[in-house]
Specification:
One of its GO terms (cellular component) is membrane. The protein is mainly alpha-helical. It has a single domain, classed as Amino acid/polyamine transporter I (Up-down Bundle), CATH 1.20.1740. The protein is 74% helix and 0% strand. It has helices at 7-18, 22-30, 37-64, 71-78, 81-95, 97-114, 121-139, 143-170, 186-190, 193-206, 222-251, 254-257, 263-272, 276-298, 300-309, 326-342, 345-373, 388-407, 409-431.
Length: 435
């Protein structure tokens, strides 16, 4: 029988899923309308609180419903199989494949900045596709190879970020004269529309805290290990995000960061000098490899669960001798390749981020339904300070989604279309199911 994933691998999946492009690109957009260091830090603290509340809620959901598949499993069990199918459909087409494409595109752009020769757009696209397919091949072979490589890549990622933070805190010769303490007017900043819009970017940057629930059925004792995995991974990332933004704002003037995407590059120049740009580009490129790897590992488990439950799609549930859903891995990699060829980085981030947030909002809301249906159920883990913790997550997530709908109605329409197509596929698969 094939080996299960270890808790440290699941924790690595969470960390690698979360730390991607968002934390290294969001600050420039936030500084367009917010110039308060205190307000900027509060964005990332609030985002971390939301992610932690979500992780605690998923910890109880995962111990009550310990099967792999993430929201596909939760929504199908709590609401209706159709809700689970659509959630899995969204995860397959957008939730993992689209972010994989976005991160691969970012990887190719940073590599183009680091390498000593000029890369044409076609060469950058080819490099992005090569990364997607390489990770597909790596994670389509065996759990042992998949788990070991993911743990190693994530360890490198965390070590590089800690090194960058240490350099930013102790090696900056002329740190910016800023204070992170609240000042008059900061209260208005926290209640402003600009703060709400900026929280959308932060929410996307924290996306991925739920990734371990996609492989929970492949953990040895998920009901015991999952809560610690979710909480530890999310807390570590939240701390790193907050420290990174302290470094960004200390290392470079706000005027240099405002409106820019390559925040890591600009901050590195403030720390190391002009040569730091290439160092930052190479570092971020390595970090993004880990992110693509983690998404390639976790996402296909939702497809596998769909294949197990819906007969016409049973080919997605087929595994190799080591229990890896190879067909699902390659389908997701194929969809990601399609997005690399047809979509832009910005389009993918906005669309994928809002749909993932909506998916998780429904899952956390389902915790209230489960508690009502099973009031006396004995489970290894229950959310502390219930119902406050899930309510905090629901409030912050709903707040950001409302602003996505109001500021980008096309995103909402596109999401409805995708959900509608998923329902059509669900109806077709039910009709073709064997008696």
């Amino acid at each position: 029988m094939s080996a299960n994933f270890r808790p440290r691998t699941a924790t690595a999946v969470i960390i690698a899923n979360m730390i991607g492009t968002g934390v290294f690109t969001s600050l420039g957009f936030q500084l367009l309308d917010i110039s308060s260091p205190f307000a900027i830090l509060m964005l990332w603290i609030i985002g971390g609180v939301a992610a932690l509340c979500g992780a605690l809620s998923y910890a109880e959901l995962g111990t009550r419903l310990p099967r792999s598949g993430g929201e596909y499993n939760f929504l199908g069990e709590i609401y209706h199989p159709a809700a689970g199918f659509v959630s899995g459909w969204v995860s397959a087409t957008i939730g993992f494949a689209a972010p994989i494409a976005a991160v691969a595109i970012a990887f190719s752009k940073y590599m183009a900045a680091v390498l000593p020769w000029d890369m044409t757009p076609g060469m950058q696209t080819a490099m992005a596709i090569a990364l997607v397919l390489t990770m597909g091949n790596l994670h389509g072979r065996s759990r042992r190879m998949s788990g070991a490589s993911q743990t190693a890549l994530t360890a490198i990622k965390v070590a590089l970020i800690i090194g960058f933070i240490a350099a930013g805190l102790f090696l900056v010769r002329d740190p910016q004269p800023i204070s992170f303490l609240p000042k008059p007017g900061d209260g208005a900043n926290l209640l402003s529309p600009a703060f709400a819009v900026s929280l959308i970017y932060v929410s996307y940057a924290y996306t991925g805290w739920n990734a371990a629930t996609y492989i929970s059925g492949e953990l040895a004792e998920p009901q015991k290990s999952l809560p610690g995995i979710l909480v530890k991974g999310t807390l570590l990332v939240a701390v790193l995000y907050i420290l990174l933004h302290v470094v960004f704002l200390r290392a470079a003037p706000m005027e240099a960061l405002r409106g820019e995407v390559e925040i890591g590059y600009i901050a590195a120049r403030g720390i190391f000098g002009d040569g730091g740009g290439r160092i930052a580009g190479g570092m971020l490129a390595l970090l993004l490899i880990s992110t693509v790897s983690a998404m390639t590992l976790a996402g296909p488990r939702a497809l596998q669960a769909i294949g197990e439950d819906f007969h016409p799609l049973r080919w997605l549930a087929r595994t190799n001798a080591d229990g890896v859903p190879r067909n699902a891995v390659w389908l997701q990699s194929g969809i990601a390749t399609f997005f690399v060829l047809t979509q832009t980085f910005e389009t993918i981030i906005i669309f994928a981020g809002s749909l993932l947030a909506f998916n998780s909002l429904l899952a956390v809301l389902g915790l209230f339904i489960l508690r009502r249906k099973q009031p006396k159920a004995e489970v290894p883990f229950k959310v502390p300070a219930y119902p406050l913790v899930p309510l905090v997550y629901l409030a912050i997530t709903a707040f950001t989604l409302i602003y996505v709908v109001t500021t980008s109605p096309k995103t909402a329409v596109g999401a409805l279309v995708l959900i509608g197509v998923g329902l059509v596929f669900y109806a077709i698969s039910r009709k073709q199911a064997p008696e």
